[in-house]
Write a structure and sequence with these properties.
By secondary structure, this protein is of the alpha/beta class. The chain has one domain: TIM Barrel (Alpha-Beta Barrel), CATH 3.20.20. It contains 9 helices and 10 strands. Strands 3-4-5-6-7-10 form a 6-stranded parallel beta sheet. Helix 1 packs parallel to helix 2, helix 5 runs parallel beside helix 7 and helix 8 packs across helix 9. The longest helix is centred in the C-terminal third of the chain and has 24 residues. It is globular and about 45 Å long.
Amino acid sequence: MTFSCPRLTLADVLALARRCGYDGIEPRTVSGHAHGVELDADAARRAEIRKSAEAAGVAICCVATSLQYADPALAATLGAETRAYIDLAADVGCPRIRVFGGLIPEGVERRQATDGMVAALGSVADYAAKRGVVICVETHDDWCNPDHLAEVMRRVDHPAVGVNWDIMHPVCRAGATIESAFATLRPWIRHVHFHDGRPKEEGDGVNLVPVGEGIVDHRRAVELLLGAGYDGYLSGEWINWEPYDVHLPRELATMKRYERAAARGQRGPRR
């Protein structure tokens, strides 16, 4: 995700991905990043973005939006804005957008928030399918508990609406294990975010640390995904952390090592 390198232009991000060995990039919108993959990009700019990614051989694997569906006060504008992001993704050749459930406002019960999410996602699902885009709701904010997001998915029940499994948030914020989160969300996982962390000594949240040094079992996540035949992307999300030329190659090397080990395990021991 472009939070690693927010000041780089799209051309520089694509070149960086190739240099480090990443198969795709995930532009984060409305965050002041320099890539230009934003709603205000006109038709010519969108065609240029798509051509640049194709020429580089680096996929735009997901457009990461800030859309939130749990707040009834936002419902009036959600449909149009979601369709606009679906169009942006389709125009640049990207098959996914990332969205949030978001925080449930004070005074709103979870059932009401869930009903609103189901209605909002259901209202744009057919349009997303028509444009070849999957809307991926992240395990984030008040939707870190896999059971809560699974209920939304079951009720929406549409192939163009799935889950962006951020593997850290259910562990750190909802007390889930990698195994339990995966088992609950498996039917709907269409995109994955990875990053590792340790709880802060004071206050809420976590401090980012290299994969394998925190509390998230990335090795097991890779094993489960590979074993289930997952063929999507594992997108590294690092915000306000180390310089990109430090963490990008190191984190990829660790995840590739886990992937190779998982593949060997599936093939079984040599005879």
